[in-house]
Amino acid sequence: MRILLMNGPNLNMLGVREPDIYGRDTLATLEDMVTRAGVERGVEVGCFQSNHEGALVDKLHEAHTAYDGVIYNPGAHTHYSYALRDAVASISTPVVEVHISDVDAREPFRAISVFDGVVAEKISGRGFQGYVDALDVLLERLRSAH
Ligand code: CA2
After folding, report:
1. Phi, psi angle pair for 97, to nearest 5°
2. How far is it, in rounded angstroms, from Cα 94 to Cα 101?
3. Is the distance from CB of 87 to CB of 119 less than 8 angstroms?
4. Ligand 1, closest atom to CA 73?
5. pTM score, two decimals?
6. Cα 11 to ligand 1 centroid, rounded to whole Å
7. Looking at domain 2-145, does it have CATH number 3.40.50.720?
8. 108-132 burial, b if ≥16 CB within 10 A, otherwise e?
9. If you average pLDDT over residues 110-117, what whole number do you get?
10. Could you tell me which residues come within 8 angstroms of residue 74 by beta carbon, excluding any fewer than 6 positions away?
């Protein structure tokens, strides 16, 4: 089983600024944590981060054939990118949307997600643990489908 961990714009800045919202740990730590969680569960995790919408669209298209599931934090694209919503809708690979912060408890625009209705599940406000929880959601779903 292959799972893609995908992070959108500005998430390469994790641990660099705004530690009160996003914590002190870096993207490398997050990728390592999810990769290790995958190893424990017998799953290969591929990691990708980009600040560019088109690169993220391309990676989702690649996930259609190359991965069994996607853990995806779209960053601010969550709130406005119909191109990425359409990309998620265009693939049959299940996608779980993850947010480190509790998007419903912040500015009102963050409570809106264009991915509503096209993702398998949305996890918000659990910090980095939310990504591991998303891995478990995907594995449960994928294993019960076989
Ligand atoms: O809570 C989340 O994970 C978000 O997806 C993060 C996005 C934000 O636009 C969403 O509303 C919620 C922003 C990611 C920015 O990450 C930074 C990390 C460190 C320092 C500055 C920004």
Report:
1. -85, 130
2. 22
3. no
4. 5
5. 0.97
6. 6
7. no
8. eebeebbbeebbbebbbebebebbb
9. 98
10. 8, 56, 81, 84, 97, 115
